Amino acid sequence: MSMRNYEPVIGLEIHAQLKTNTKMFSSDSTRFEASDNENTSPVSVGMPGALPVINKQAIDFAIRAGLALNCQIRKKSVFSRKNYFYPDLPKGYQISQYDLPICEEGFIEFTVDDEPKKIQIIRAHLEEDAGKSTHQGDYTLINLNRSGIPLLEIVSGPDLRSGKEASVYARTVRQILRYLDVCDGNLEEGSLRCDCNVSVRKVGTEKFGTRVEIKNINSFRFVEKAIEFEIERQIDAIERGESIVQETRLYDPDKNKTFTMRTKEDAQDYRYFPEPDLLPVILTEAQLSKIKLELPELPQQKCSRFQKQYSLPFYDSEILTAERELSEFFEEAVKICNNPKGVSNWMMTELLRELNEAKLTIQQSPISAVNLGTLVGLIDKGTISGKIAKTIFAEMWKTSDHPEQIIKAKGLTQITDPKAIGLIIDELIAKNPGPVSEYRAGKTKLLGFFVGQAMKASQGQANPEILNQVLLEKLKG
Ligand code: ADP
Ligand code: MG
């Protein structure tokens, strides 16, 4: 992609749906599977006189997220009305936070192509979601189940410089929120939505260019592509002598293009004022310290710990800590066999491949952490060979059985008795007089042939080292 001496400037607004059981300002359920308009009440349909009540769990979740994003948490934050008219917003305003958001001035760090990045978080504020309109020919259906669901809007500084950086930033935010268990991060279901602000400026200039906002992109790949497209479009326009209009655009993944949606509102268009039906949220130091103490280990910390504690390469650690549940599975398995690299190898190759193919999460794995750990332990003890372990793994995947149970049922233990192996080899030698005499005449590379045949005859159960020893001995004649 040609930058033609321009530098892109990008800032993301991420709307994260908080995983509360009830809505931001009412006791309506937040269940995603509910039928249309089932999760509603006078508050969420905006009946006159209905009064909002703040959901304490949403406040706690916002604080958790704010702390993990290195934000300052305001001891006094205020909800404001953001006024606009739209059919999916029956009240005529959204309750949001404006000048006094609950979290501000944070940052996150990550690397892109081995380069460290530090991106500012300007603010993270609480607000309620709107309903959903479905347009059908000449009429429109409204579903208010989403109306009032708590959102945390996380606003980055204009610090990102490429589509790739923006997508890694968004993935990192998602990973943190999922570790904290405050948002499920499901982009398809809309529980995480990214708005991308993009502008370009001539390299060396201070002043930012006019920005365009691309709304509601529902995949990280599209975040990257939409931004890359938009950068090119803006540079082309400027080079043609046109000026960029501040507007909201939509990205069409099929055409890989962005399109004008509407010209952008300014804050003054929303006539913000403090929500008169709610008191400010006042937090105490004790509340904040309690939540701070309860914060789980975060992905980057865990990744470094895995490298140190288990002597794992960065590559392994990063994959194993990508999801909290994956890292917990790993640690549980290691407790059983005390072989971190062994468990890591089995997870990263066999297990993750099978899970991927079957489209299952680690929580849905038919093979439990204890069973995988036991399998690795059995290889280490020499009870089974690596080859048999693969057979057992396949059986565990099908039946969820414990490996020892499978070994017993299928008689799969490794044969380590030299006498038993000797019998197999005697038979092999008797059956192959030709190769045997060639071998004895000096064609020693035939050894591989004998090893393969003997292993086959033992149905893969002979211990390879013992088999080798006995074979060499017997072939001498
Ligand atoms: P609004 O609420 O109008 O969308 P914000 O102040 O919340 O405006 O900023 C939205 C996002 O736009 C932030 O992530 C910010 O970093 C980013 N941003 C601001 N100015 C620019 C710019 N000139 N180019 C690119 N991004 C910008
Ligand atoms: Mg905004």
DSSP strand content: 15-25%
Taking pLDDT < 50 over at least 5 consecutive residues as the criterion, the unreliable ranges are: none
Give the beta-strand count.
Answer: 16
Distance between the termini: 70 Å
Largest sheet: 9 strands, mixed
Mean pLDDT: 92
Strand order of the largest sheet: 2-6-7-10-1-11-12-13-14
Shape: elongated
Percent range for helical residues? 40-55%
Number of helices: 15
- Bound small-molecule species: adenosine-5'-diphosphate, magnesium ion
Task: Supply Rg.
Answer: 30 Å
Number of domains: 3
Q: Which structural class do the helices and strands define?
A: alpha+beta
Short description:
The protein is α+β, with helices and mostly antiparallel strands and 477 residues long. The protein contains 15 helices and 16 strands. The structure holds adenosine-5'-diphosphate and magnesium ion.
Task: Set out the fold topology.
Layout: E1 6-17, H1 56-68, E2 72-73, E3 76-77, E4 79-83, E5 93-97, E6 103-112, E7 115-128, E8 132-136, E9 139-143, E10 150-156, H2 163-180, E11 192-202, E12 212-217, H3 220-239, E13 247-252, E14 257-263, E15 273-274, E16 281-282, H4 285-294, H5 299-309, H6 314-320, H7 324-337, H8 340-358, H9 369-380, H10 386-399, H11 403-410, H12 418-431, H13 433-440, H14 447-457, H15 464-476
Parallel strand pairs: 12-13
Antiparallel strand pairs: 1-10, 1-11, 2-6, 3-16, 4-5, 4-15, 6-7, 7-10, 8-9, 11-12, 13-14
Helix pairs in contact: 2-3, 5-6, 7-8, 7-9, 9-10, 12-14, 12-15, 14-15
The structure holds adenosine-5'-diphosphate (ADP) and magnesium ion.
